[in-house]
Design brief:
- By secondary structure, the chain is mainly beta.
- Helices cover 9% and strands 36% of the residues.
- The protein contains 1 helix and 12 strands; from the N terminus they run αββββββββββββ.
- Strands 1, 3, 4, 6, 8, 9 and 11 form a 7-stranded antiparallel β-sheet that branches. It has a 3-stranded antiparallel β-sheet with strand order 10-7-12, with no helix packed on it. It has a two-stranded antiparallel ribbon with strand order 2-5.
- It is elongated and about 90 Å long.
Length: 176
């Protein structure tokens, strides 16, 4: 019986034992949160993408309009005296900040008859700030502006009907 009392006493003592822990807290004296608001980007078109006048033949061809404004024809296309122009844009925004240009993969130009549509591809840009083909420019640190030109390659089918062909495309600029 003495053993039973000792076992019961040990069980009761184990059930009533608890750990006492002190509360541990830490306070940081000053927490800082920051943000920077950038000037909104502005984009204004100053010139349209115009491949100028071309003549066709029984062979298909292409016309490249470089970002420097040079027009190069190949295949069954021939230059006709005219004044091609690059699409041109002015950009305004936060001084000394880089931005990226987003161009479409292709542009469709039409004379109103879908089976006669042509495609402009290989679009590229040349920023004044970089003086090289690419899609990244930098807003000028003094004026808060930059500009860029867009060129591309027009693909023309054999015996493409004579007409004026038009189309539209989206250009987007965003801070890096």
């Amino acid at each position: 019986m003495k053993k039973s009392i000792i076992i019961i006493a040990a069980i009761l003592m184990a059930g009533f034992s608890t750990k006492v822990m002190a509360q541990n807290t830490k306070t940081v004296a000053a927490t800082v949160a920051t943000t920077q608001i950038l000037a909104p980007l502005g984009l204004t078109q100053t010139s349209i993408l115009n491949f100028g006048k071309l003549t066709t033949s029984a062979s298909s061809g292409s016309c490249e309009l470089t970002t420097a404004g040079a027009r190069n024809v190949s295949g069954g296309l021939f230059n006709y005296p005219s004044s091609p122009t690059n699409a041109a844009y002015n950009v305004t925004g936060e001084k000394n900040k880089a931005y990226t240009i987003t161009l479409p993969t292709t542009i469709t130009v039409s004379n109103g008859t879908p089976l006669q549509d042509m495609t402009i591809s290989a679009l590229t840009a040349r920023c004044l700030s970089t003086a090289a083909d690419g899609i990244v420019g930098t807003i000028d640190a003094t004026s808060g502006t930059d500009s860029f030109k867009v060129g591309g390659t027009l693909t023309v089918a054999a015996n493409q009907p004579a007409a004026v062909y038009t189309g539209s495309f989206d250009v987007t600029v965003a801070y890096n």
